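Aim 2 progress. For Beta-defensin, the working sequence is reproduced below.
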Amino acid sequence: MKTFLATLAVLLLFLQVIPGSTEKCWNFRGSCRDECLKNERFYVFCVSGKLCCLKPKDQPHLPQHTKN
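Predicted structure tokens for this construct:
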């Protein structure tokens, strides 16, 4: 039982320390970052004030305004 608790404690510690476990945004499709990666685009701001970076395929398509 002590081994199990020790293993669990180490795993929980690693979850807090491992880089890349970032805040998610836009229905869990994006990641909050200070700068977007090369293959990502900024869409909205996260609650933390960071950029919500999405891959182009996950960005919603906004309708184009047309002049009448």
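Residues 43 and 61 are 11 Å apart (CA to CA). This observation will guide construct design in the next reporting period.
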